[in-house]
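input
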Amino acid sequence: MNNFIEHLEQNVNWNKVFGVVDSLYSDKGFTSNADNFARATMVEKAIDKFSNLERVDGVGYDLLFGDKKVELKTKKNLFYKRKDPKATTKFKMKNFQGDKKTVKDYQNEKTFDYLLVIDLTARRVVVVDDNRARNLYEQGGDGILISLNEGDYYECNLPEINVTLPPTNLSTLYNQADQSYLDF
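output
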């Protein structure tokens, strides 16, 4: 895991990754829940482009770091601000989507090597070993939830972030692509 952490701390252009994040989440052209998928996908693609991690969107993982599978979870305001700033709110790891699996089934199923968790607001990046993450799974509504506390993760020591924003909002480009596609 040390090589992965070192790579995140030294070889990722976090200025551009968080520039994409800032642009996507301030984009007034994104107005519906359906737009959340576009944002999440573009954050994965930004990490791919600016980190040398490969976006594969496999079953149970999103990225590859060499031969290691990485599950990516991103969320705004993930870490508590006052209650316990070293702890996260609960976030979804898996959707049941009609599966008859139990929490125990998911705890026994290894699908990734590292869990990469990014708080989009606080710009915090943490890494959790697969075994530790699976032991923290709990049932919640229609899926498996997890929350992290100090000792569950390694927090990356990121350089100072000075965001570099993309020149155009993604929603503008999507609208242009839609019009071009429909002009036949």
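quick obs: DSSP finds six helices and nine strands in the chain.
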